[in-house]
Queue: 2 jobs
Job 1
Amino acid sequence: MYKKLFIPGPTHVREEILEAQAAPMIGHRAKEYSELQGEVRRKLEKVLYTEQPIFLFASSGTGVMEGAIRQAVRPGKRALVTVCGAFSARWHELTVANGVPVDRIDVEWGQGFTPELIDEALSQGDYDAVTITFNETSTGVMNPLQEIAALVNEKYPETVILVDAVSAMAGAKIACDAWGLDVALGSSQKCFALPPGLTVAAVSERMLKRAEEVPNSGYYFNFLVMLKKYKVDQTPATPAISLIQALNKQLDDMLAEGLDNRWARHLEMAEAVRTWARRYFALYPDERFLSNTVTTVENTRGISVANLNAELAKRGAMISNGYGSKLKEKTFRIAHMGDLTIADITWLLGEINDILGLE
Ligand SMILES: *Cc1c(COP(=O)(O)O)cnc(C)c1O
């Protein structure tokens, strides 16, 4: 049976989008392709509030996280990685794996970062880059990105700001230029509500200058290599043409919905899930850092999340268990991202109540 996905990626993909993805193939050096990429670029500039380059990578988000950290740190300098859950910890892991000198700052899971915490950490080293996970999908924490970026830009002008916005981009406002973000990346299978395989990355002019100063920073994810072809609305290697065709259609629908309406819809769905979670369970994250796109619920009733999902499957829905050994069965996650509606959420919560016998 078809299951509607209320998991934090891949998310539910509408029929029209699947159809757009099945359009006939075009050559990636042909004029039609450049026109397609140009159209997509202009629409993405609106969604990401930027006039700087936006690159399209045939990769999941992790690839671009790796590429970004490799070209952000000059010889002799360090990166600061902020860790508040499993996905931000991954950024630390891949920074170490690439031999980039790194320090990490942790907060307890369920907590987020304040500008004050970031300030204290940055003041103690010579950092060329700081990584921020806008929306930590394991704990359901949304960090105050705008405030953090304002602090970094004001006090640490040499430090580029690398943002994993994988589970927030296209579901929450990210004003790349006004907030002064250097790299903001998002994967297709989350709030863009497309199949997986494509990553969108907005990259600042400042980041491009930084990349020029970093030797041996790779090829496939190299922003300067991308930039050359970007100028003619192409990519150096073969792009994920089908996904970009689907993205073009999705961007039309997003702009027709209205961006402010889209952000408001995500918040409305989040609030519905939070209200339900407070009533029957508890919220896992600190109330100051609640995510607009995914809610992590503390399993205060000790239900079997696996059984709940098995029952939901019979009714055509799927939620997520807690992330990793630390949170599995102790929490569960309801994603409210992409093209889901408040009606979908109301239906899901009703089904869960019915299965668990909650009133
Ligand atoms: C899903 C997710 C990732 C991993 O993205 P992929 O596209 O699977 O590589 C990274 N960070 C966050 C916050 C995520 O939610």
Job 2
Amino acid sequence: MCFLIIVLLTEINGTCNSKNKILSIASGTSFGRCITYCRRSINITSNPYELIALKEPNFAQTQYPSVQQQYPISSDEWQKLISLIDSKSFQTLNDTIGCPDCADGGAEWIQINWLKKNKQVTFEYGKLIQGFEGLINELRSLRDKYVNNL
Ligand SMILES: *[C@@H]1O[C@H](CO)[C@@H](O)[C@H](O)[C@H]1NC(C)=O
Ligand SMILES: *[C@@H]1O[C@H](CO)[C@@H](O)[C@H](O)[C@H]1NC(C)=O
């Protein structure tokens, strides 16, 4: 009985108070040997519900100023994204997977900020990470939708 109560309390603590509450999910691409807009990213936050799209060059160039734009999103869109994230297994991933941008192939990254923790994982452009295919595909389609319009 006592044990059960402890388990229950731990569960409640884990869900509500929660170091595991996600504050933002960001994802982008970058190419090292590249001029013009070599870095493109989105950052989605829940407070407020919005998506910030950004494109920028690797170094300051007057012809290619950084461009950033905010878009409102719905709580449904946020929930959909959150549902694709297994926080625990994301936190166990290596920070670098494969050899991103090694042969000028480009890099792709995902950064998740929780209340008490941040983690960025960088992987080879165009590749998938096992267990995160849904998340990566959803982030790619959001990047296509928002960053391509900047
Ligand atoms: C995304 O935005 C949040 C809230 O402003 C910020 O804390 C976080 O660092 C940003 N993520 C990235 C990768 O810039
Ligand atoms: C994480 O990185 C280390 C060092 O590069 C490597 O030896 C290990 O196999 C990697 N683990 C996974 C799960 O990819």
